[in-house]
Every structure is written in C-alpha cells, then in structure tokens.
Amino acid sequence: EPLSRTTVVEDPSSLAQLALDATKRVSSKLLSDHEALRSLERKAARDALNHGSLTEEKEKALEDARKAREKLVKEVSALCDALDIDPPVLLDGDDSEEEDDKGELSLWTAERGSRSESAGAYDDDAARTFYEDYPNILDVVPAPALGLDPAKVAELQAKRESIRALWRGAKTLAGAEAEGLENASTVVAEDNDDVVEPTVEDNEPRDAVGLLLTEELPACHSRDRADALALKFCEGLATGKARKRLVKALYACPRTALDLLPQYSRIAAVVSQAYADVGELLCQELAREFRWLFKGKKLHNLEGKLRNARFLGELSKFRVAPPHLVFVHCKRCLEDFSGHAVDYCCSLIETCGGFLLRSAPTKERTARILQSMSKMKSAKPLNQ
Predict the structure, then answer these.
(1) What gap in Å lies between CA 315 and CA 269, rounded to an integer?
(2) 10-33 b/e (C-beta count within 10 Å ≥ 16 → b)
(3) Which residues pair with 105 in a beta bridge?
C-alpha cells in the first residue's frame, strides 16, 4: 500500500507575527545605529573644530557608518512596505542630544558696557568685520578656475558653514575632550625640528606667482590689498607648488613688520577656504618654529618668539589655526613659566585670548589657562 503524503501547513497568522517581530528587531537596530551615527557625527564636528580637520581613519569610519545606516534604512523600508506598517522615524533635530550634552552646555552673552553685543567674540564691530567678513573664494571664483569640480566646491561650502555654525553656537567642548587637548602635543611629526629663521629669498622665479609674492605681498598693509592678492592668487595660479611658495612667503613675514601679520593671516584665511593645505602647512611651520625657539632655555631671539605668538594668535582668530595648537603652546610655556616663556604666553593670550574666552567652544579651556597664569604670577615673580 503506497505511503500517503502529508503536508503540515503553518498557521498564516503565526508567520505574519514572526515577520512582524523580525521587522521590529531590525527597526530597533536601525534606531540604535542612527543614534550612534549622530553621536559620531557630532564628535567628528567637534574634532574638526579643535584640530582643523579629521584624520583619514576617522573620515573613513564616519563614511562606513553612513553607508551601513543607509543600507539598513532600505532593508527596513522594504520590510515595512511588505507588512504594510509605518517605518521608524529617524530624528534629525536636536531632540536626542540632551543626554550627550548634559552638563556640557553653557551659554555665552557678550559683556555689557563698552563692547557692542553685535561684536560677538571680538573686541568691537570693526574687529568682527575684519576677522569674519572676508571674501568667500568659493562664491567669487568659478570652480574651473580653482581647479575643483562643483561637487567638491559644494562640500567645501558645507564644511565652511558647519565650522562657522559651531563657533557661533552655545555648546562648550565636552569636559573629557577639553582635557584631551592637553595631550594634542603637535600638529606635525617631531622630526625635522631644526628649522632656520624665516627669511625672504631673492632668488625666487620671476614668474606671475613670484612677482605676486615678492612685490605685491609685502605691500599688503590693508584688507583691500590682502583680499585682492588672495583673489588674484586663486584665479588660476594656485597650483600645489604655488601654494607651498605662498606658505613660505607668508611664514617669512619679517619680525620688524608685525603690522602685516593680520593681513597675512587674512590672506591665508581666504585661500584656505578652497585650499585647506595652505592653513595647515602654515600652522605646521609655526609649530616647528615654536619647538625650535624653545628647545633650550637660552634667552635669545625674543622678537622671533613674539612674532610666532602674534602670528599664531591672528590665525586663530581667523579660525585657520586650530585652538588646540594655541592651548598646547600655552601649556608648554606654563610648564616652565619663566624668561621668554612668560613673554610668549602673554603675547599669545593678548592676541587671541579674548576671542577664545568669548567663544563658547573654547571658553572653559581658556579660562583654565588664565587661571593657571594667575596662580603662577602670584606664586613667583615673573621677572626672574
């Protein structure tokens, strides 16, 4: 007698319930990954503010997290469509930031009295205009002339606005991250510290870039001339080699012409909007020079040290130099607060201390630096 075939038919309602449970678990995973990504993006934005840019590893990790989230969004959407249920809502606002920023949020209001509230983090409206209202090279110069494609220009525009928004915001740096700035000891590797003092060389090629840097750059005693030079440089002259020559010329600002430092820093700020390597290389040169100047305890070359402090302070106010570099230099001076270290630290604070103290992201860290200086001033005479 042939065997009869039997088929076990599952209850359709139980299958639907299994699918629904699986969708809920995947949706929960999506919400968790989304919050983790938002936290990672906020941390990356703070790192970019503190250090000037993200490392390749951090950029890759951020991009991988975004791709994984997008893939999971598509899968959850397909499941929700099949089951005819609403997909989870992914928040993009500030609703879930309360926990991350708890205890790290402080508001800044301008001091009333002699300063205008519209001056923001600067001493007055004129200073705010000088350090913030400079030409946006990405709008003024066409992308082909910059050697960039439209997508890259759009990315740079977004980054520029993001950094400005962070500086104008009301959030302070996380306590752990602010303390972590003390460990950010260098901008570049510690090798090749034996640099020579900056000098202007007369044997530069007499091409368009050479004429621009040797004849027009030293005459930039006003913001109009500085802006015109920066625009001229970016309109077809800003090759990789030319940008290195520009950095070399800016770095070689004479010690006897400190009045040029604000204009030179403005040029670096304008050009860095399209070519970030200009600001990065200039900060690297100043960091190398700082280590060379303070390699020993010899009291020599005070003018060079003050020039370095003023230059770094001006770049900081243009947001070209990352604030952690200012804090690192102050910390090293405070470790042996005597001799020229006092002059350097005071000059640096005099140049950019007010800006950093009034800026929400750096307010607390700057206040601690000033407190340390005050304690050391009370502990021992600074003229010894």
Answers:
(1) 8
(2) eeeeeeeeeeeeebeebbeebbeb
(3) 171
Q: Does pLDDT of 117 surpass 80?
A: no
Token match 């001799």: residue?
339
Contact 213, 246 (CB under 8 A): yes
Q: Would you state the pLDDT for residue 36?
A: 87
**CB-based burial label for 137 (10 Å; 0-12, 13-18, 19+):** buried
The residues near 180 (Cβ < 8 Å, ≥ 6 apart) are none
The first and second tokens of residue 84, run together, are: 């005819």
Q: What is the pLDDT of residue 12?
A: 61
212: DSSP letter: I
Cα(155)–Cα(146) distance, integer angstroms: 14
| Residue 125 near residue 261 (C-beta atoms within 8 A) | no
pTM: 0.64
Token output for 76: 């959850």
CB neighbour burial string for 151-187, b if at least 16 within 10 angstroms, e if fewer: eebeebeeebeeeeebbeeebbbbeebbeebeeeeeb
Q: Residue 104 has what pLDDT?
A: 34
Q: CA–CA separation, 340 vs 163, rounded Å? A: 34
